[in-house]
Each structure stands twice: as structure tokens, then as C-alpha cells.
Amino acid sequence: ASLCAVGWNEGKPDRHGQIRPKCYVSTCGTSMPGDPHMKRRYQRYRVPGRLGDEQIMRTYHVPIPRPQLVSEYYDGCQVIDVHNHLASTTLALENRKTRRYAFRYFQTFVRFIVTDSFLAYKKFQNL
């Protein structure tokens, strides 16, 4: 399988003022331009009113260009969060504490099987 690696300079500067690139490695996707990310920004301004100046907040969006590989990743990453949420809270799996690595591995393996089975049941039963 061929791999594609992309470094993307987006984020907040660290304490030295540098923006560290985030590295993405995938077996699908390209480094061609993808859908831009719409960053929400806020602007405060004052408007004279009867009781003095009023502060008004305006929201606007700034398009941030990103590669297609990064766009595909962020468009689908919430599925993993839903899977983890179902496994840890709704289905209450992996609540048993253990120090034995073999049991922990087995517990995690069963967690994925049960959660995927539940999601398949939910999809095909139209719940």
C-alpha cells in the first residue's frame, strides 16, 4: 500500500511563537487542496446608545485552506468520538479496573466487538 504524508501548519503558536506542523500519514487521500476549514472569529465594537456605549459582538468566518487528506480526516474523526462515547458511557464497557495486561487487552477487544455489533444492530433495525 502506498502512503501519503502531509504536514499542515495550522494552530496556535507555542511559547516560542512557532506554529508546529501537524503530521498526517494515510493510505488514502492526496496533498491537493481540499475543502477549506471555516474558522469562527469574533469582533467587538462599540455603538453609542441612550444609556452610554453598548458593546456588540459580531461573528464572522475566515476560510483556512487545508489539504484534501486533512479535510477527509477532520470530516470523519467525530465517528471515533461517538464510538468511544458509546463504549465508555452508554454501554458501560471497560469499567472493571485491572493490572493484568492480558485481561485488559481482552476487555478492549470485546469492547470493540460489542460496540460495533450495537452500531450494526442500530443501523439495520432502523432504531
Describe this structure in words.
- The chain has 127 residues and is α+β, with helices and mostly antiparallel strands.
- Helix content is 36%, strand content 28%.
- The protein has 3 helices and 4 strands; from the N terminus they run E-E-E-E-H-H-H.
- The strands form 2 sheets. A two-stranded antiparallel ribbon has the order 1-2. It has a two-stranded antiparallel sheet with strand order 3-4.
- The protein starts with a strand and ends with a helix.
Throw out a few tags for this protein.
single chain, 127 residues, alpha+beta, two-stranded antiparallel sheet, 3 helices, extended
Task: Write a brief structural summary.
This protein is α+β, with helices and mostly antiparallel strands. It has three helices and four strands; from the N terminus they run E-E-E-E-H-H-H. Helices cover 36% and strands 28% of the residues.
Write the layout of secondary structure elements.
Layout: E1 4-8, E2 22-26, E3 37-49, E4 52-64, H1 68-76, H2 78-90, H3 101-124
Antiparallel strand pairs: 1-2, 3-4
Order of helices and strands: EEEEHHH
Largest pleated sheet: 2 strands, antiparallel
- The side-by-side strand order for the widest beta sheet comes to 1-2
The rough form would be described as: extended
Q: For the terminal residues, how far apart are their CA atoms?
A: 37 Å
**Helical segment tally?**
3
Strand content: 25-35%
Q: Work out the radius of gyration.
A: 22 Å
Helix content: 25-40%
Poorly predicted segments: none
List how many beta strands DSSP finds.
Answer: 4
The structure class reads alpha+beta
Query: What's the mean pLDDT score?
Result: 84
Oligomer: single chain
